[in-house]
Amino acid sequence: MSFELADNAYVSKHEREVQLLINIIEPDPEYQPFIITDEASLLDLVGNMEDEINEKLNFYFKQELSINLGLPLPKYIETLKIKFPGWPEKNVNEF
Question: Which of 1, 20, 28, 37 could form a disulfide with 6 if both were Cys (CB 3.0 to 4.6 A apart)?
Fold first, then answer.
């Protein structure tokens, strides 16, 4: 039996954005994922329920995001960056 590791080039390149989203959703490092791939979605990474994840992200971004949590991380982050140009360098209060 052989294993093939999933691609993580995007996650590696955008580590800051990925880690920020994970910290918002699950601030306790003990419950954060230790392996993240480009195919993973936010729903795959944490044990939180979808409503709880949305609530935390909406609170952080100060508005209802309405972005599908099942999107792969690259697509989710790119959608966030379209909605919030300059994120995460730009403070959420500036949007």
Answer: 37
Question: Nearest to residue 74, comparing CAs of 29, 1, 10?
Answer: 10
Instruction: Identify whether the C-beta of residue 85 lies closer than 8 Å to the C-beta of residue 94.
Output: no
The residue among 31, 30, 44, 32 whose CA lies nearest residue 73 is 44
Look at residue 11 in the predicted model and tell me its pLDDT.
Answer: 80
DSSP string, 29-95: GGGS-S---TT--HHHH-SS-HHHHHHHHHHHHTS-----TTS-HHHHHHHHHHHSTTTTTS-GGG-
What are the two backbone dihedrals, phi and then psi, of residue 6, each rounded to the nearest 5 degrees? Answer: -75, 155
